[in-house]
Amino acid sequence: MEKARIAVLVSGGGTNLQALIDAQQNGILKSGAIRVVISNNRDAYALTRAAKFGIAGEVVLKKELGSQGAFEDRIKEILNQYQIDVIVLAGFMSILSQSFTSCYPKRILNIHPSLIPSFCGEGFYGLRVHEAALNYGVKVTGATVHFVNEIPDGGEIILQKAVDIQPDDTPETLQKRVMEQAEWIILPAAVEQVCSQL
Ligand code: GAR
After folding, report:
1. From ligand 1's centre to the CA of 70, what distance in Å?
2. Which of 19, 49, 70, 100 could join 96 via S-S bond, C-beta 3.0 to 4.6 A?
């Protein structure tokens, strides 16, 4: 069986991309292979991580392309060029429109750093999610991998994992623990699950 062809969309540090690369190396991710990393930020360290492993990197800047439509058209062009089957949003800090998401039903996965439906939707990204969980006072948070549809963070849930909040947590310590104990585990597992079922 040929491996599913994966594109990973990133914006920043790329630790979730790294978890996918590691999973590919150690065989946890065996039904798919990352063919291209697409960044909407020229300086994303994720691009360096990709290059280190010989994975192609592409930069797509909305500012240069002028509109959301042109931005998404360029991403689609790259996805076509690399004959991509599965798209993974791994810390991709830009919301994709319905005209984009409807082209890839059940083919786009996203990792979100909370237990959806808590602390999710527009405006909830990165550290803000953990700030909101701490402000609310929940004692358990976690991460969710879900399919992407037209509702921000509203698509079908694939995997979730809970993480306890500690009394002295700051947004930064909580973000780190959620990554280590949940995100880096469930993202590769969910990608493998989806790729193995194509
Ligand atoms: C991760 O915590 C990811 O779950 C979150 O941004 C961080 C990116 O880190 N994504 C969102 O908040 C999406 N709404 P990374 O670049 O090191 O993977």
Report:
1. 24
2. 100
Taken in order of first residue, the domains within the chain and their CATH numbers are: 4-196 (3.40.50.170)
From 111, 120, 124, 128, give the residue whose CB has the most ligand 1 atoms within 8 Å, as the site to mutate.
111
The total of other beta-carbon atoms located within 10 Å of residue 98's CB is 10
Tokens of 72: 């998404």
Contact 95, 123 (CB under 8 A): no
User: 3-state SS of the chain: helix, strand, coil percent to 5?
Assistant: 40, 20, 40
Q: What would the pLDDT profile of 152-176 be if each residue is shown by its tens digit? A: 999 999 999 999 999 999 999 999 9
Within 6 Å (CB) of ligand 1, which residues are found?
A: 12-16, 90-91, 111-113, 125-126, 129, 179, 183
Quote the CA–CA distance of 163 and 83 in Å, as a whole number: 36
Taking each helix axis from N to C terminus, what angle separates 184-196 and 15-26, rounded to the nearest 10 degrees? 60
The protein residue with its alpha carbon nearest to ligand 1, atom 3, reads: 91
Whole-angstrom distance, CA of residue 44 vs CA of residue 96: 19
